[in-house]
Design brief:
Layout: E1 12-15, H1 19-34, E2 43-46, E3 51-52, E4 72-73, H2 74-81, E5 97-100, H3 103-107, E6 112-115, H4 122-129, E7 138-141, E8 146-149, E9 152-155, H5 156-164, E10 167-172, H6 177-181, E11 186-191, E12 196-197, H7 209-212, E13 217-222, E14 228-233, H8 245-252, E15 257-262, H9 265-287, H10 291-314, H11 321-325, H12 327-339, H13 341-352, H14 356-364, H15 371-385, H16 392-401, H17 410-414
Parallel strand pairs: 1-2, 1-6, 2-5, 6-7, 7-10, 11-15
Antiparallel strand pairs: 3-4, 8-9, 10-11, 12-13, 13-14
Helix pairs in contact: 4-5, 9-10, 9-12, 9-13, 9-15, 9-16, 12-13, 13-14, 15-16
The structure holds 1,4-dihydronicotinamide adenine dinucleotide (NAI) and 1,3-dihydroxyacetonephosphate.
Length: 418
């Protein structure tokens, strides 16, 4: 067990309060309460504010609480009822979650930042956070998606790290939020590869950089292209418990949420992003009524494309065994193709003959699909690389979503050409 001999405690903020953002906040709040020798008990949860009435599927529908009458801010409702009535209705949240509508206030003095929003919103959030966070904070991204720009494809753990000047790992796994929130057992994977102190960096007066330096210190860091580079990071002051694999395990592990911490940050993040495209494909073929064999076929081809993409574009910084051995890979693929939102909405879109965006709006009550956007992001990148034909399943999903191909074409499209 991790024992704390340090004088300062970590303050934890979750940036995001959707379906997964709230379920993760619940886990963290339970652990912060139990391990209040290491963590501040209160977990701040940043909420993108909106006004609503307590809905019928809430545990508090028609209760006599003042916030249950008429329209109120979601933050006020969460703080009064300890339930996220919109994104995780029916689940009692620990009282030590504080829903906060101010991003700046939510991250103030936090040493640990957990990023958990739909990926389309994270860049703007990072822009708003610049200069507002502790410079020696460390992060974990629970976001499933990729960041495609002119220069290429990056993972959000990297993008967040670069934009905020902090180190950020990743968390991903077979973790359908509603099941995790009901405390049904599952596994997850955390990727964290903390920078090593650069032994050649000038040592400041008064000791080693890790002990006394409060200014920028140069670290050697391996990025997702496998390149070692010198990056400047603020070391965590030594009066805090070190942020390492053991600390992440202590913060996230629950009897119902089993954590494995690995060093393959890129593999964890990439697996979570790419499986969402495959889940859309699985939904398409299931919507056609083609049965489990067809679904298994797209899962097989999809897993191979995941491994190929990781190897081709993330080089030696990725361990492809993460895709086959960790929850963040094949297990996430299986659960997402069974009961995930991408799967369910893609299936309904075929069954109802309606665009998936329409189904998303009708069925998800404000929750967001990631697979459709990721299919477009990955396609943009593959096109630029001239590699669309090497990834027939990823390409097919994008083309079907764009109306350029039909689901009936999937079998012939993914068959290797002789
Ligand atoms: N829900 C799940 O079962 C799981 C989700 N994930 C991943 O976690 C990430 C977050 O997903 P969820 O928490 O499920 O989100 P969600 O799908 O429930 O999305 C709704 C959230 O987006 C926020 N939002 C809407 N418009 C916004 C805006 N303009 N700016 C900022 N926020 C806005 C809403 O306030 C709400 O918090 C995604 O990348 C997802 O793939 C990972 C594992 C499981
Ligand atoms: O990532 C998930 C499960 O691990 C959830 O996937 P969906 O977003 O498709 O529901």
């Amino acid at each position: 067990m991790l024992l704390s001999t340090n004088s300062k405690k970590h303050k934890v903020t979750v940036i995001g309060s959707g379906n997964w953002g709230t379920a993760i906040s619940k886990i963290l709040a339970e652990n912060c309460r139990e391990r209040n020798d290491i963590f501040h008990e209160t977990v701040e949860m940043w909420v993108f504010e909106e006004k609503l009435e307590v809905p019928k599927n809430s545990m508090h529908y028609k209760s006599s609480e003042p916030v249950c009458q008429g329209q109120h801010n979601l933050t006020d409702i969460i703080n009064a009822l300890n339930e996220n009535v919109k994104y995780l209705p029916g689940v009692a949240l620990p009282k030590n979650i504080h829903a906060n509508p101010s991003l700046e206030d939510a991250v103030r003095d936090s040493t640990i930042l957990i990023f958990n929003v739909p990926h389309q919103f994270i860049i703007r959030i990072c822009d708003q956070l610049q200069g507002k966070i502790l410079p020696y904070a460390r992060g974990i991204s629970c976001i499933k998606g990729v960041d495609v720009e002119e220069e290429g494809v990056s993972l959000f753990s990297e993008t967040i790290g670069k934009k905020l000047g902090i180190y950020c790992g990743s968390l991903s796994g077979a973790n359908i939020a509603n099941e995790v929130a009901k405390e049904l057992w599952c596994e997850t994977t955390i990727g964290y590869d903390p920078p090593h102190l650069d032994s050649k960096a000038p040592t400041p007066a008064g000791g080693s950089p890790s002990q006394s330096q409060v200014d920028l210190v140069s670290f050697e860091h391996k990025d997702s292209s496998g390149q070692y580079s010198k990056v400047k990071l603020r070391p965590l002051p030594t009066d805090y418990p070190p942020i390492d694999h053991a600390l992440w395990w202590t913060l996230f592990h629950r009897p119902y949420f089993h954590v494995r911490v690995v060093s393959d940050v890129a593999g964890v993040a990439l697996g979570g992003a790419l499986k969402n495209i495959i889940a859309v494909a699985a939904g398409f073929v299931d919507g056609m009524g083609w049965g489990d064999n067809a679904k298994a076929a797209v899962m097989r081809v999809g897993l191979l494309e995941m491994v190929k993409f990781g190897t081709q574009f993330f080089g030696n910084s990725i361990e492809t065994k993460t895709f086959t051995e960790e929850s963040a890979g094949v297990a996430d693929l299986i659960t997402s193709c069974s009961g995930g939102r991408n799967f369910r909405c893609a299936k309904l879109s075929v069954q109802r003959g309606a665009p998936i965006e329409e189904i998303e709006k009708q069925e998800l009550n404000g929750q967001k699909l990631q697979g459709t956007l990721t299919a477009a992001d990955i396609n943009k990148f593959l096109k630029k690389q001239g590699a669309e034909k090497d990834y027939p399943l990823f390409t097919a999903v994008h083309r079907i979503l764009k109306g350029e191909m039909s689901v009936e074409d999937i079998p012939s499209h993914i068959e290797p050409k002789l």
